[in-house]
Amino acid sequence: MGYYILRRLLSAIPVVFGLTIIVFLIMAMIPGDPALAILGAYATPENIARINRELGLDKSLVEQYAIWLGNLLQGDFGRSYSLNRPVIDEVLERFSATLILAGSALLICSLLGLLAGIVSAVRQFGWADRLITFTVLIGISTPSFWLGLLLILLFAVTWQLLPASGMYAIYGGGDLPDLLLHLILPACTLSVVATGVIARLTRSAMLEVLRQDYIRTARAKGLDERRVIYRHAFRAALVSVIPVIGIQAGFVLGGAVYIETVFQWPGIGGMLVKAIATRDLLLVQGGVLVVATSYVLFNLLADVAQSLLDPRLKS
Amino acid sequence: MSVASLAGSGRPSAWALLGANRLAATGLALFAALLLLALLVPLLPLADPDATAPADRLLRPLADAGHPLGTDQLGRDLLARLLHGTRTSLAMGISATLVAALIGSLIGLVAGYFGGRTDNLIMRGIDMLMGFPYILLALAIVAALGPGLMNALYAIAVVNIPFFARNIRGVTVGLARREFVDAARLSGKGHALVLATEVLPNVLPTIVITMSTTVGWMILETAGLSFLGLGAQPPQADLGSMLGEGRKLLFTAPHVSIIPGLMIFALVMSINLLGDGIRDLLDPRLKSGALTRPAARTAVDAARPRPAATAAGESGQPLLDVRGLQTQFEIGRRVYRAVGGVDLQLREEECLGLVGESGSGKSVTAMSLLGLVPTPAGRIVGGRVGYAGEDLLDVPDARLRELRGGDFAYIFQDPLSSLHPLFRIGEQVAEALRAHRPLGRAEARRRVVELLELVQIPNPAQRLDAYPHELSGGMRQRVCIAMALANDPRVLIADEPTTALDVTVQAQMLRLLDRLRRERRAAVLFITHDFGVVAEICDRVAVMYAGRVVELGPAAAVLASPAHPYTRKLIDCVPVLGEPRRSLDAIPGLPPAVDRLPPGCAFAPRCPRARDDCARGEIDLRPLPDAGGGAAAREVRCRYPLPLAGDPAPAASPADGGTS
């Protein structure tokens, strides 16, 4: 098992490597000449050549990439000009908040999605199935940023049950209950679409599994139906649902951008939006790289979980 | 197997299909209406969406006749802005979809068509794009290009390219190796021409499906970027930017943000409904209803005909007494009568062979006994299954579970698919034990080792922890047998237990089964299509054809001298060493479809001895008059049975008592 994890971990390295290439290329395609932008009216040919040399822009793209990657590996993501602090510090600080939000959303969507999918499959064509199918359809069609606003209106403004924004109360907050209270609305909003996707997939995976010969064997052994469904069928269905949960991690991490903006959650998504508005590209670059790398790790986690469940995958 | 194929073509009920279509139709209607509205915007008598009127700021909907949806913070008419915004958002989403479809499909076509290193390189790149969380890559692109409506469009298109590239590549790979593509290439057409004229038309449906499933996201995500202030810039407005601006007024004038959100929701919902409908329509698995779930127990008609139990004969009451069993599959409006009134008696410790071709109903008969026929589409519509004074078709669920794996145990055809792939074999056998009596872990383990020993699995204490995929076919079937024997069943139902195994293993397995059933004093219902197997282990044999028993008798006697022409043909099918010319297709034609059985004898159309009246009237299963000692021992469903061996005179008169 340890060997398998190690192998998967090693195979993630080229993927992360690929991410850096893409981010580098996107940043390299920025229109306009940086030297011109910096020099403005002082743009004489000599000055431009000097600035380009200082910025390393006279080197080939490959060399530039190598230097940039070398810096990244040493933890040097550059300095944010709008915040005037190292990018890596800001990004890591913000990322912990995003991780709390996205992690909770993933937890919610996995539990709820699996449960809804099982119920839907077991009661196929019954009223519960129809209700769930319909709710799922509405859920995956709802813009999350709009849903967030609606929930704020209902729970924070009309009923005044939950805080509308932020991660902690401004006065006297800061403990775990306070965090959880602030977490409920954004985490639930963020999990809606992923819950729908997982529920749909779990339903069809369960229906597929319930037709298998080994389910007939389980029934022929005299097992009661709960055990047949929750142990035999669900376990097998889970094997095909887990990679999808891994993929949902990507949608949740990306969707966090909207949710953090709506709920003013101090995470990396809100930071990215502000950084784009202020054209703080080093900050954007750092943020994107860190979130994308975490997505790779989420998928790795899903792979390992899947192989723990399915002994056939290890050989 | 016939059960699987019949049930596999089952469909959800008619209303479910209709309902699915109705949803798709609703989606189509809604989307078409919104699209039409957006197209007609310039012709509608709307207010100027950009005309500000500070005096009319933040009017509520319906508060002012001139502004049905109210106004925003600058006093602009919300209805006009909403419709113009819808137009922009739709245009954005659809354009992004077209761009992504064009570039993505091209990439997919090239990768799939050329294959090899080109394919590898391209798909690696695509995988890397997919390594990013969806919206994050779009953000990075917008960051580089700068905020703006067109840049948002490009960004969303780029992040959707991988979906098209992957799907189209998948289809193209299959097509590129097909004969008609090869032929086109050999005829001297260039690659581009072959791609355009031969491959593209065949991948078009996939492109359409992918478009229908992604256009909703793209509308949603472009609106999202605008919501974040990274898409449409004022005074330009789409639904997303309206929502983003309205957000600042959420507490004072919620309608400004809620209304555009509602429109995005309506758009995306209608597209998703439509997309689901298209996918259902084009997905053959759903269309065939393969995704209906079999219930825990076969549906049984409560008001079915129940023949009386068999009277106790000279050998006493039979252990298992099946009378008039009828099981059918209801698929759409068609009814397949897989089992059409079967009578079987299984006596204590006897091995009864149930023989017939695929589709003769022998497996369905066996599965019906304990309600293991999948419902839908299976349904038991007649008969009784008498056991220990009960009718098994009527017993409560709890009692049925007690009998399943208790007094009755099954051994199925394919041990690989019958064992759960994710559980250790020891667990699976232990589960069979514990389902019927409380047992500690250590005790269960000890019993499992005993059982594995019993079925001659070497090193049982170690094999316990193996997974099914780690064992050979023969070992797996031994595990299945061990599982079946776990609770000392009185009746063992073996459904072609050797068919899926290697020929060399088959003989071992038969000997093992024969020894075990004698040691354990279990009665066996042995289902097979192979008379060679019957000769090995069965005491009596029942031959089935088209859902009914056509001949019944002691195995040796039937083998030596079959009375039904069908039995004769089946026996002729058994390959005999040194007689290579006995072919396996000794019976011309196919068994009849059980949804339209011919009147009279179902075998008549294939029978060399058939006479005119064979295709008329009901033919009963009757004792064979010439069978000699113990007349009741042999029965046949034939008007003109074959003469018995050693019988000088061929049967001259119809055994049926003369309808001719």
Describe the protein:
- The complex is a heterodimer of chains A (315) and B (660).
- Chain A has 12 helices and 2 strands.
- Chain A has helices at residues 2-28, 34-39, 45-55, 61-73, 87-122, 127-141, 144-158, 176-210, 213-220, 225-263, 268-277, 281-309, and strands spanning 79-80, 85-86.
- Chain A has a two-stranded antiparallel ribbon with strand order 1-2.
- In chain A, a hairpin with a 4-residue loop joins β1 and β2.
- In chain A, α7 (144-158) crosses α8 and α10 runs parallel beside α11.
- The radius of gyration of chain A is 24 Å and the shape is globular.
- The N and C termini of chain A lie close together (10 Å).
- In chain A, 43% of the residues are buried.
- The two termini of chain B are 38 Å apart.
- Chain B has an 8-stranded mixed beta sheet with strand order 7-8-9-4-10-11-13-12, sandwiched between helices. In chain B, strands 1, 2, 3, 5 and 6 form a 5-stranded mixed beta sheet that branches.
- Chain B is elongated and about 105 Å long.
- Classes of the chains: A mainly alpha (315), B alpha/beta (660).
- Chains A and B meet through α1, α6, α7, α8 and α9 of A and α4, α5, α8, α10 and α13 of B.
